[in-house]
Specification:
The protein is of the alpha+beta class. It has a domain at about 120-200: TATA-Binding Protein. It has 7 helices and 4 strands; from the N terminus they run H-H-H-H-E-E-H-E-E-H-H.
């Protein structure tokens, strides 16, 4: 009698577990009125635009987990710029390693760092544009003159504005004005960009770095 009772109780418990398992795997019950509660989707359906589970593309995975599982960033900005140039040189069979000068590029990147992060800029509106006194101390003064004076020639070559730079105490005065003083949009653009925005104008920076590393920069252009 006792044995029969134990078997019966065990069978009932097993049946309850099976019911719970099926219930958990199946869709939730539909409440009265046929409306699913807010935030719930019927089983097997996804919110519009949602990505299916496991559908992350290979490219997306590589973006977050580079091959080999190592970090994807080469380091800080200067290190990354040099790393990029070295990869280009190493994949180019025409590279003349007897002329390559990565130290020259490193010094230029130091100058960039000094100017971008340590120089002081006093900007004054002038007719048609902006005058900027870019100054510093120590190494920063040399970096300002090494970068800003050559860059003014790049700005001068652009069609919408004219630029010139002249040495001043502890730095350089850069003046950029619209070629057409009545072009209010260009005048506003110059003033809005300011020194930082004008410094990055033009697409010469990448080729300039590569040419410098390859030893192809003119001797007169020291940095």
């Amino acid at each position: 009698m006792k044995r029969s009772l134990v078997i019966a109780l065990g069978s009932a418990a097993l049946g309850s577990a099976l019911v719970v398992g099926v219930w958990a795997q199946g869709p939730p019950p539909m409440p009265p009125g046929g409306q699913m509660p807010s935030g719930h989707m019927p089983h097997g359906q996804r919110p519009p635009g949602a990505m299916p589970h496991g559908a992350m593309t290979h490219d997306m995975h590589e973006q977050h987990h580079p091959a080999g599982g190592g970090p994807g960033m080469a380091g800080q900005g200067a290190f990354g710029a040099m790393s990029e140039v070295v990869r280009i040189l190493e994949t180019d069979p025409a590279t003349d390693w007897s002329k390559v000068d990565m130290e020259r590029l490193r010094q230029h990147l130091i100058d960039m760092d000094e100017v971008v992060l340590r120089a002081s800029v006093k900007a004054t509106q002038v007719p048609g544009g902006l005058a900027m006194d870019v100054t510093g101390t120590g190494r920063t003064v040399r970096s300002i003159r090494a970068m800003v004076i050559p860059h003014s020639a790049e700005l001068e070559g652009m069609p919408a504005w004219s630029a010139k730079a002249e040495p001043i105490a502890d730095g350089v005065r850069l003046i950029v004005v619209a070629r057409d003083p009545g072009d209010a949009k260009t005048v506003a653009r110059i003033r809005g960009l300011g020194f930082a925005g004008l410094l990055v104008q033009g697409g010469h920076h990448g080729p300039h770095h590569l040419a410098m590393a390859k030893g192809e920069m003119p001797a007169a252009h020291k940095r």
